[in-house]
């Protein structure tokens, strides 16, 4: 037998031995191991991960396409870029990742475009080292969370920014919604407002629910009742804020706390179109302190999220997971700051107008 044939026989024997050993380790068939090593479909993500882990444990080299040599990539999944808070967050996270030797892959959802679940599939195909989510579907109780479960099964390092539904066990970095709501309400109460409303995100939005609960408790402790008609739910957009506030001003509110700066801009527009002045007739408070809120007319009073500190903490938690440290699925809470500008003023008496 020629040398080339002998070499080929040795390679085949080594491959067969490797398949058998990995199969025994994982408790699957050699055919299943072969499908994983050749990138074939028909294998669950959990089994695929178990086979690859067994290769590492047994000291075998992964096939080139499965090594993750490109895995100095980190997915950064955002809901949009129209809201200035998200580009600001992307800048912080991208910079912090670069300092750690990683490159961020920006994934932004669009209406009718690529969904969050589809982005997760794409990122998994690219063998990214981890994923950071901000403003994702994890914050909506009624949304589909199957793609997060896939990340949990794959044990891919992941961090969520701002409150998530309870059953997801990822590390989280959040701005304290309770403190934010208490700050905003306390400011309006100090200005003599009693008819205070809230404009929040959808009913299943976890951060909005937290804000409403804290708002209601703080109001009750100050002898102020939060009427059901003073709480509006809407989408996070200028148009959503406008529509919600148009209903509120007809009910005679004098102060409005919004769950985002974008909603607050819509609230100011609606008040003006109703013939009211901000802040003389209606005081408006936003949330985020996103770019240029000090340049609006009037400059917006808002609750500032500490985006820089939160972004860096998210990266630290992610890199710790990538480095195989044990990172519990807890929530780190960062305290916001009330930034008082010109969209709030002492209350003056106002009556509800015709509905």
Top keywords for this entry?
alpha/beta, 6-stranded mixed β-sheet, 3 domains, 434 Repressor (Amino-terminal Domain), Rossmann fold, 355 residues, 12 strands, single chain, elongated
Q: Would you give an account of this structure?
A:
The protein starts with a helix and ends in a 16-residue tail after the last strand. It has helices at 3-26, 30-37, 45-58, 85-99, 116-125, 146-154, 177-190, 206-221, 238-249, 261-273, 307-322; strands at 73-78, 103-108, 130-134, 158-161, 172-175, 196-200, 231-233, 255-258, 283-288, 301-304, 331-334, 337-339. α6 links the parallel β3 and β4 (158-161). The protein folds into three domains: 3-66, 434 Repressor (Amino-terminal Domain); 73-175 and 307-336, 3-Layer(aba) Sandwich (Rossmann fold), CATH 3.40.50; 177-305, Rossmann fold (3-Layer(aba) Sandwich). It is elongated and about 85 Å long. It is built from eleven helices and twelve strands. The protein has 355 residues and is of the alpha/beta class. Helices cover 43% and strands 15% of the residues.
